[in-house]
Fold this sequence. Notes:
Layout: H1 3-31, E1 37-41, E2 44-51, E3 56-60, H2 68-72, H3 75-79, E4 84-88, H4 106-119, E5 125-130, H5 132-143, E6 148-154, H6 164-169, H7 177-182, H8 185-202, H9 209-214, H10 223-243, E7 254-259, H11 271-277, E8 282-286, H12 293-296, H13 298-303
Parallel strand pairs: 3-4, 3-5, 5-6, 6-7, 7-8
Antiparallel strand pairs: 1-2, 2-4
Helix pairs in contact: 4-5, 5-10
Amino acid sequence: MNQEHIWIVIGLLTVAVAMAVYFFARAAERRNPPIGKFLDVSGVRLHYIERGSGPVLVLLHGNAVMLQDFVTAGIVDAAAANHRVIAFDRPGFGYSSRPRTTIWTPVAQAKLLAEALRQLGVESAVVVGHSWGTLVAVALGLNHPQMVKSLILLSGFYFPRFRLDVLFALPPALPIIGDVLRYTVSPIFGALLLPLTLRIMFGPPEVPRRFKEQFPLAMILRPWQIRAAAAEGALMIPSAMQLRPRYPELKMPVAILAGTKDRIANIDRQSARLHKELTSSRFEAVSGVGHMIHHIVPEKVLSNISV
């Protein structure tokens, strides 16, 4: 077989794998249809759920996941007993679109969500952000303070530090080569590494049975969601750099929670440090808990809603 034939075979294999990945992704969507409603906001089709009535509570998930992260943690149902709970799929995750014409920084996402909340008739809300979602929550508090009654920040990344995982996450977000990766090897490697990824995210505690049984893991392996996750990984450090000088501008009550065993965002370098800068904030370090604090100790999150 000459070199030309080899390239033809490689090309055909690539197309076959890409087709298989696409059909797998669509099959995942058929098994996990949207569980909420949609808003059209500034060219973005935004998926959200709304439960309960009373004071408004807004939930912003972290990178790679979707609004079901808060559902499977039990936060949505518990809070809906006496709150109007609104949880969004942030742009590119779940069933929300992520137009390539916008760089979806926390500031851009905060602007989008502020408009969405206005469309929903929300004037003021307690805002909960987890992981990457804390940056969006902080941006809401800084740029739309009239809409934010208080902030609850879980396992956040607030101060720029070099992270090797960002380099590994970047390629699927790149033009052209990223498209090829996302429709070929990225979902395969993602599936193979998923058990390890979950252990790192949840550990030291075990991954809760409820999460394993109810969270639609196949959805996070779709090429379009991989693109969103890779882009947010690449944006994490510059976003923290952009927001960091403005943290003292946060005047609303802020509760900061993090696990002492967080393997994703070191508690001393991130959450504890933010608490020192926000002298009026409340801070709780939860012993023995990792990054997914809202799954392991949801009661601590719920107790801070009225902060």
